[in-house]
Design a protein that fits this description.
Bound molecules: shikimate-3-phosphate, phosphoenolpyruvate
Radius of gyration: 31 Å
Helix content: 25-40%
CATH architecture of the largest domain: Alpha-beta prism
Number of helices: 25
Number of strands: 32
Structural class: alpha/beta
Length: 738
């Protein structure tokens, strides 16, 4: 039966939900006829008068004999009697469904009447409602953009399931599927407990002597919080009686946590209060995204397409956001330090926020971020606590690899997970040497996340010769080395970013660097400090290339981190003939910083020296755009690492360029690019932030508009990119798509 073939839909129980459903089905033409039944004749008559149903049936047998889809919208306790009464008229080709807020009891009711769960019954629950009740409150838009959960069983007929799902979708709902038990647990936590608390709080205050005073002054917060205490008491009584076990479980947890808060208040323990409040606030802001495995920041929930038109020249005086690598490390070391660490210039991008959230989940009280300021109440080397669940690290490889090392030496078990892109990235490169240090760490299929770490391992120092030049691997081992007995040393095949080494020293932890070898001994402590995070040269890189390739450009980038292990992009662009000047050099917290002025200059192709590769590892997508705009040929080799970043950056760039009419020669470890005209067209960034921004830069020299797909992840490293780009002359529009 297809949705349009529902001839007669019958609703039993014309309250708010039943009435709204009947009205929605009628208005949207989802059934040829809608009939209803309510044991209160007045409600049934009102439903007919209001046009909520076409007619009302005199009894349940008549109703059942006329309908092909029957919706039970009665209290949980009434389901069995209603089924019993209509049973004589029920046929196997009827489709039965319900809207009850508890599913286990409803399943039991069906089984008690039919001896087993009938195949034609599809249990469901729309997550929508209102504190109003009765048919007079019926609202045909009630389910629009709300979720409806269906809980099919193995016996459920797939056709019946399809019809019910189509009805809900037809009413504008998003349909989700889950098991009966899971539904009841989830709802106990997200709906039943909050209603219970609201009823209880209002009752407590209403019983107080000065209740008139309290209610007279009860404004915003009280009203918002207790709105649901105006809900139907009988319905809610039944919810608690029928979902007893799941509700008790979550109620006990809440009770215990409330006691902790009460004790904290009694003891004047502001730290505990702040910890709960900062964690709760962050969770409130980010939980939807975390659950969906998406970005943390609410404004990037949906996907984003860039439409990049002709812009330029690129002129102005700007500061790009804070350095991602340093932001990660500032949270990690600040958390393990003794005392309060103050950070300025923190990158409020998804990746750094994932690290921040991970430490909150491990009990660290972190205030902010607030316009780049973060305050960390350090817990000391051994003060982290087991997180309540897996640590979700979004898109961030740095978070996962560095945390793998840092957490190998803790006393608790932990699991590290990430989004679709991170879940494909190699983790054995850290797991293998960490195992040699005594860590109990496992990766999943193909050496990928999730990464599971067993607590309580005794780590011992090792010497490790890194097979790849990776700052993440080096840092992971150095952080594990903080917890290892003896000396841990790492030798790198080529210099990589040394922010971990510099920042550890800033926190007073001795680190020995001798040529390509870093050595650290376990057992010392970190002391809180102040950190000023400079602008990220990897973000500045987009503007360095943009101004270099666009005639008439003259742009200044302020306070950019110019650590020698990060300036490959400047060296390479200069070799290509770029006009880049550094001034105002200073050192901030052990990191060199400068202002950078870049003006348009004709570029020429070069063979990129391989030793520059690790020093510009994240800047190649945009350097490829520079290469296409340069005269002659540019050859990159020794860069196979690009294939295991957020996407395969060699192939993704080659494919995107091809879509714009630019050919390239892809090699296993690099690419050959020649001067070419960039056309308009559509490219796919594959969710890789740096690819998305690189093609936005390409638009400055393209003959037509470039449409760039899948750009939401720009928020991982460069929040506010579109606005800043437009400020200096880009013509970039970000369109949100659902
Ligand atoms: O240590 C770091 O902060 C980073 C190291 C680099 O990764 P690899 O170590 O994998 O090269 C880089 O690509 C990443 O964006 C940040
Ligand atoms: C590779 C990158 O980051 P990560 O490895 O932390 O995901 C990047 O930002 O380009």
């Amino acid at each position: 039966m297809l949705q349009s073939q529902v001839k007669c839909l019958a609703v039993v129980g014309l309250g708010l939900i039943g009435g709204s459903l009947a009205k929605a089905v009628k208005e949207r033409g989802l059934a040829e006829k809608v009939i209803g039944y309510d044991r209160r004749d007045t409600e049934a008559a009102l439903a007919v008068r209001m046009g909520v149903v076409d007619e009302s049936a005199p009894d349940l047998v008549t109703l059942a004999s006329r309908a092909d889809v029957i919706v039970l919208a009665v209290p949980v306790g009434a389901v069995a009697p209603v089924l019993e009464e209509m049973k004589p008229a029920l046929r196997s080709d009827h489709i039965l469904t319900d809207v009850g807020s508890v599913k286990g009891e409803i399943e039991k009711a069906f089984v008690s009447v039919f001896g087993e769960m009938p195949a034609n019954a599809v249990l469901g629950h729309p997550i929508a409602g209102s504190e109003k009740s009765g048919v007079q409150a019926a609202n045909s838009a009630l389910f629009e953009n709300h979720k409806t959960i269906l809980t099919p069983l193995p016996v459920t007929d797939s056709q019946a399931l399809g019809v019910v799902a189509a009805l809900w979708r037809g009413m504008g709902a998003e349909v989700l599927f889950m098991s009966v038990a899971h539904h009841d647990e989830v709802l106990a936590a997200t709906s039943h407990l909050p209603h219970l608390i609201a009823f209880s709080l209002v009752d407590t205050l209403a019983g107080a002597d000065d209740n008139k005073e309290i209610f007279r002054y009860a404004a915003g917060g009280f009203r918002d919080f207790t709105r649901i205490a105006a809900s139907d008491p009988v319905m809610w009584r039944d919810v608690y009686l029928t979902n007893r076990d799941a509700v008790l479980k979550v109620l006990n947890a809440f009770d215990a946590d409330l006691k902790k808060l009460r004790n904290a208040i009694a003891d004047g323990d502001g730290q505990t209060l702040l910890g709960v409040f900062t964690r709760a606030r962050a969770a409130r802001e980010h939980f939807t995204k975390m659950l969906e495995g998406k970005a943390y920041k609410t404004d990037m929930a949906n996907n984003v397409t860039y439409v990049a038109g002709k812009g330029g020249p690129v002129c102005g005086d700007i500061r790009v956001p804070g350095d991602k690598s340093m932001s990660h490390r500032s949270i990690m070391l600040g958390s393990l330090a003794e005392g309060v660490t103050e950070i300025e210039g923190f990158l409020e991008g998804e990746d750094a926020l994932a690290t921040l959230q991970a430490f909150r989940d491990m009990g660290v009280v972190i205030e902010g971020p607030d316009r780049g300021s973060v305050t960390i109440n350090g817990v000391g080397m051994h003060g982290l606590k087991q997180p309540p669940g897996p640590l979700y690290l979004g898109n961030s490889g740095t978070s996962m690899r560095l945390l793998a090392g840092l957490l190998s030496g803790q006393s608790f078990d932990v699991e590290l997970t990430g989004d679709e892109s991170l879940s494909k990235r190699p983790m054995e490169r850290v797991a293998k040497p960490l195992r040699e240090m005594g860590a109990e760490i496992s990766t999943s299929e193909g050496g990928r996340p999730p990464v599971k770490i067993k607590g309580g391992s005794r780590l011992h120092g090792i010497h490790y010769d890194m097979p790849v030049a990776s700052a993440q691997v080096k840092s992971s081992l150095v952080l594990a080395g903080l917890y290892a007995e003896g000396e841990t040393s790492v030798t790198e095949p080529a210099p990589t970013r040394d922010h971990s080494e510099r920042m550890l020293r800033g926190f007073g932890y001795p680190v020995d660097v001798n040529g390509s070898k870093v050595t650290i001994k376990g057992g010392h402590k970190l002391s809180a400090t102040k950190i000023d995070v400079p602008s990220d040269i990897s973000s500045a890189a987009f503007f360095l290339v943009a101004a270099s390739i666009t005639p008439g450009s003259d742009l200044t980038l302020r306070h950019v981190g110019v650590n020698p292990t990060r300036v490959g992009v400047i060296s390479i662009l200069k070799m290509m003939g770029a006009d880049i000047e550094l001034s105002n050099h200073k050192e901030v917290g052990g990191e060199p910083v400068a202002d950078i002025r870049v003006r348009y200059a004709p570029l020429k192709g070069i063979r990129i020296p391989e030793e520059q590769v690790p020093l510009a590892i994240d800047e190649f997508p945009v350097l490829f755009i520079a290469a296409v705009c340069a005269e002659g040929e540019t050859v990159l080799s020794g860069a196979e690492e690009l294939r295991v970043k957020e996407s395969d950056r060699i192939q993704t760039m080659a494919d995107g360029l091809a879509a714009l009419g630019v050919s390239s020669e892809v090699k296993e470890d690099g690419i050959v690019l020649r001067s070419a005209e960039i056309g308009g067209g559509t490219v796919d960034s594959h969710g890789d932030h740096r690819i998305a921004m690189a093609f936005a830069v390409a638009s400055l020299r393209a003959t037509g508009a470039i449409v760039i797909k899948d750009c939401a992840n720009v928020a991982t490293s460069f929040p506010g990119f579109t606005a800043l780009a437009n400020e200096v002359g880009f013509n970039l529009r970000a369109e949100e798509t659902a």
